[in-house]
Amino acid sequence: MKHTKDEIKAGFVVLAALIIFSAMVVFIGGSRFWKKLDVYHIRFSAVGGLEKGASVRLGGVRVGQVLDLAVAPDDVSKIEVTIGVESETPITCDAVASVRTLGLVGDYYVLLTQAAGADRPLPVGCMIPSREMMEIADLLVQAAELSQTINRSIEKVVTALNQILSQENINHVRASLQALSRLTSDGEKSLSSISIDLGAVLKRLDTMVANLDGLVVENKDHVHRTVVAVKSAAEELEILSRTINQTIIENQDDLSSLIASVHEDSQKAGKLMDHLDGHVTVTGEYLEETMANLMEISENLKLLSSQLRRQPWRLVYRGKTTK
Asked: In what order do the strands lie in the sheet with 130-131?
């Protein structure tokens, strides 16, 4: 069967059209038709309007496409999305996938996000963690609930303001302000009176201080002489007490011998005068008691002289005594 020229020309036109169409497809699709894709899996609770062939973007740049969507075989509540990513695209272990839309009503796509500085690559075929998308309808529902909550709060605030600004509360506030004004006025008068009295008291204190200073100046020499005399008397008393104490110590043996001799003589005389024995014994005990009293007086004089040396004013003023 022979073909005419027109049929041959028509065949060439169709072939040229197919070639041009293929070139346009390749031009539009780019070189991705011949690029190798790395397969990863993602699981979502809901994918919205995501479809097979949707783009996969990394930071807004298209790096692959959705290869398949299916219910997860081991969890019917999840949708498993299989994506293909160009092999030269670095996908790290901290990558997170989410479903987004181009604009408010645009096409759905898978967005991959990665942390800055991450360099550990994710093996091909692994599961990429997902971040669930928020549907516009859910946002509208939440906005409506939030609006109702705000309206109820505003109503409560308005009610509280109406109660606060009621005529009864206004009257109470007005009465409180008037009472405060009266109290302030009375307080000013009291403060003025107190300040006047305080000024008078301060003047009296100044006068008393001046008189006391004058009295101290006038009697300064007399007080000084008295203190010197008291100190001198204390020193003399201390010397006297030392002398008495030393005398008693020096004559202690003699006194003891005298007492023993008197006691012995009294015993001898007792044979002749039995009625005098008691008197002689009493005399000996009296002498011992006298000796002890002299020792005590010496110690007291020594203590008195020491106190007068430290506190000579006690001869003039003994201080307050507790009852």
From this structure: 127-128, 37-44, 79-86, 61-71, 55-58, 108-113, 96-101, 130-131
